[in-house]
Specification:
About 5% of the residues lie in helices and about 55% in strands. The chain has about 180 residues and is mainly β.
Length: about 180
């Protein structure tokens, strides 16, 4: 299926989008967080989705897990080294349609200066004209990465076995974007 009506350039609306993550904590629960400051854009070729592209930049210091002490620790060299590496970036290298409303977005993810390829399956959530006359689209996606692949290796063994923080991190993308004029 093609989407010729969607062809164009879009800017991610950070006030209506969320870029976050989920990590297992102490082997018993999940901790969710997000990045409060980010920007991104993408170009959609509705007739040939494989010609589309996307890029996102997250401000590392904007990490928010609703716990100031934990957020402070995540900004240190134990985790994201926010002073030395102030941004996390993703730049697409390939986009492939997957089913009627699915798109696999493959690209280069850079965390702590280490770049690795990742593929994020996205689902097209729809398109609408908002109350301000903007053409708006939505996409949701998630993927799992190993944080150790990006040099984020801090951990602590637990008395009962296992570790404090999982190596596998789920990245979550809830994107609302506005078509550029």
């Amino acid at each position: 299926m093609t989407y010729p009506q969607l062809t164009g350039e879009y800017t991610i609306d950070d006030t209506h989008s969320r870029i976050g993550f989920v990590a297992r904590h102490a082997m018993v629960t999940k901790v969710r967080g997000s990045f409060n400051e980010f920007e991104g854009s993408f170009t959609v070729d509705g007739d040939a989705p494989e010609k589309s592209s996307a890029q996102v930049t997250l401000q590392t210091k904007s990490i928010d897990t609703r716990n100031a002490d934990r957020d402070g620790h995540l900004r240190t060299n134990d985790f994201l080294s926010a002073d030395e590496h102030p941004v996390i970036t993703f730049t697409s290298t390939a986009i492939a349609q997957n089913g009627e409303d699915g798109f696999d977005v493959t690209g280069d993810l850079t965390i702590k200066g280490i770049t690795k390829p990742v593929t994020i399956p996205f689902e097209f959530g729809g398109a609408a004209k908002d109350p301000f006359g903007n053409d708006r689209v939505g996409f949701d996606g998630s993927t799992v990465i190993n944080r150790s692949d990006f040099g984020v290796t801090f951990n602590a063994p637990l008395e009962t076995g296992g570790v404090l923080v999982s190596d596998k991190i789920t990245l979550e993308f809830e994107i609302s974007a506005i078509k550029n004029a």
